[in-house]
């Protein structure tokens, strides 16, 4: 981790109060990555990802501002413009990086919200840092937002922002969207600060989740742990305000992926990838952040056992696994990296031939064009998380299969499984079941694959990320009548 210099975009230093945005987005990260050119000059490039491309047009049209952390530990940073959006950097110290980001966000909330796939750690000083950083985001938003503006808070790192912001600015419409799963009451209740987090979210007018089950978990917890009256998707607060909690399944910029997949550069690269792999009959593909929720280890074992059991040889089938480095200083992630390295080494040592490894394992991040080339080149996409809010890689693969061929093997515990019903669905904890579905995908009749892929392509074409953003913002900005505040709250659990 290193401290970076500040890129100055305007002569006079702009303060948050100068911005006066009609639409404010808050996310842990700014939607740009810093690039350093050969001559040493620095610049910003828009980060890949659907969220920013969906929001960019509406933000440009609404004097939009995005508040976030620039991705390096940085205490002093200036407001700047990029692609028509005002970017307002939030500085965090090295200690806050360790306690708010690596600690409370990614070693407490992340495992807790993902079914305890790893054991969450509870530390009081991490909580204090989480509160402090959330407060900084809220205070900045309170300064940046114009009178009556719409504010949209993103994800688990910022769950206290809605209520902290409402205390400062009751004139705002505040929305919150959780990109990761929201756990059932039995798991969430372990959290020492469960009530504070629920109350943090209740500062919003609309709380969005990936799936309706998650919204129901939230409503039930609010009733049980905070004691507010609820009915279906609505929470009735004692002050007459209502909070709606419902599902808005996120998606991708489908047209952009289709365009990329059809481009001559990506098509040529896809052919080269197949050639480099020796043109086997089938290529399996996994693309994930190297995260213990993704089920990479179990998937590798399932694939290797299919070779070991003689269902196909390394000449007939190979696996390309991209595992992009993530949160590398957090203990559980370091351990996972070591275990995965060891397993892939064993598998290739046992089963590989000269020039024919069973698994091509790439511990690296790639640009979107290379990902698209992999989606085009590979026949069977394997997405087997133990728990995942949505999993956009599954949707990206489908968008890139322009010829309506290829198979998707998908965990039933990924949010995407609720929409992509025609995938080869698997329980990632059941290695034999996973082997059976991977083999079924390997042997599938092209007609069956075509039928499945056509249906899934229709789904991702009809529900893209722009529809998602519009649906959320329309619901958030549609006026709702206040309820009768004399309704008696239910007794606290
Ligand atoms: O899935 C949740 C999420 O925060 C994504 O928004 C993000 O792309 C990914 O995890 C990686 O997160 P980080 O910001 O910790 O690298």
UniProtKB/TrEMBL annotation:
SUPFAM superfamilies: UDP-Glycosyltransferase/glycogen phosphorylase. Pfam families: Glyco_transf_20 (PF00982). InterPro entries: Glyco_trans_20. One of its GO terms (biological process) is trehalose biosynthetic process. GO terms for molecular function: alpha,alpha-trehalose-phosphate synthase (UDP-forming) activity. Belongs to the glycosyltransferase 20 family. This is Trehalose-6-phosphate synthase. The lineage of its organism: Bacteria, Bacillati, Actinomycetota, Actinomycetes, Propionibacteriales.
């Amino acid at each position: 981790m290193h401290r970076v210099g500040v890129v100055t975009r305007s002569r006079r230093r702009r303060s948050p109060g100068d911005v006066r945005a009609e639409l404010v987005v808050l996310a842990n990260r700014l939607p740009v990555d810093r690039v350093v050119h050969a001559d040493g000059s620095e610049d910003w490039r828009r980060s890949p990802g659907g969220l920013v491309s969906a929001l960019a047009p509406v933000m440009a049209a609404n004097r939009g501002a995005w508040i976030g952390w620039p991705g390096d530990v940085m205490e002093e940073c200036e407001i700047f413009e990029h692609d028509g959006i005002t970017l307002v950097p939030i500085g965090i110290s090295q200690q806050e990086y360790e306690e708010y980001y690596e600690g409370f966000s990614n070693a407490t909330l992340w495992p807790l919200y993902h079914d305890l796939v790893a054991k969450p750690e509870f530390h009081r000083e991490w909580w204090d840092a989480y509160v402090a950083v959330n407060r900084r985001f809220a205070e900045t938003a309170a300064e940046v937002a114009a009178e009556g503006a719409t504010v949209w808070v993103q994800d688990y790192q910022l769950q206290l922002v809605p209520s902290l912001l409402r205390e400062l600015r009751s004139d705002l419409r505040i929305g919150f969207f959780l990109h990761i799963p929201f756990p059932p009451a039995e798991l969430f209740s372990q959290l020492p600060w469960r009530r504070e987090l629920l109350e943090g979210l209740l500062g919003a007018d609309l709380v969005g989740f990936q799936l309706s089950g998650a919204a129901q978990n939230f409503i039930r917890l609010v009733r049980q742990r905070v004691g507010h009256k609820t009915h279906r998707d609505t929470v009735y607060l004692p002050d007459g305000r209502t909070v709606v909690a419902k599902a808005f399944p996120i998606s991708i910029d489908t047209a952009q992926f289709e365009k990329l997949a059809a481009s001559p550069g990506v098509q040529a690269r896809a052919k080269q990838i197949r050639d480099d792999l020796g043109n086997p009959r089938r290529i399996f593909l996994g693309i994930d952040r190297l995260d213990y929720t993704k089920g990479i280890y179990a998937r590798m074992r399932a694939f290797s056992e299919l070779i070991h059991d003689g269902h196909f040889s390394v000449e007939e089938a190979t696996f390309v696994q991209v595992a992009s480095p993530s949160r590398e200083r957090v203990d559980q992630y370091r351990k996972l990296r070591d275990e995965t390295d060891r397993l892939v080494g064993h598998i290739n040592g046992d089963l590989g031939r000269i020039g024919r490894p069973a698994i091509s394992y790439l511990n690296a991040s790639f640009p979107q064009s290379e990902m698209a080339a992999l989606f085009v080149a590979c026949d069977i996409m394997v997405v087997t998380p133990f728990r995942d809010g949505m999993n956009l890689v599954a949707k990206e693969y489908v968008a890139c299969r322009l010829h309506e061929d290829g198979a998707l093997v998908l965990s039933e515990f990924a949010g995407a499984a609720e929409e992509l019903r025609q995938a080869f669905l698997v329980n990632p904890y059941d290695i034999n079941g996973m082997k059976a579905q991977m083999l079924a995908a390997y042997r599938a009749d092209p007609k069956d694959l075509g039928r499945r892929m056509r249906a899934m392509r229709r789904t991702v074409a009809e529900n893209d990320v722009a529809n998602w953003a519009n649906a959320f913002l329309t619901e958030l900005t549609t006026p709702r009548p206040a309820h009768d505040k004399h309704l008696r709250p239910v007794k606290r659990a």
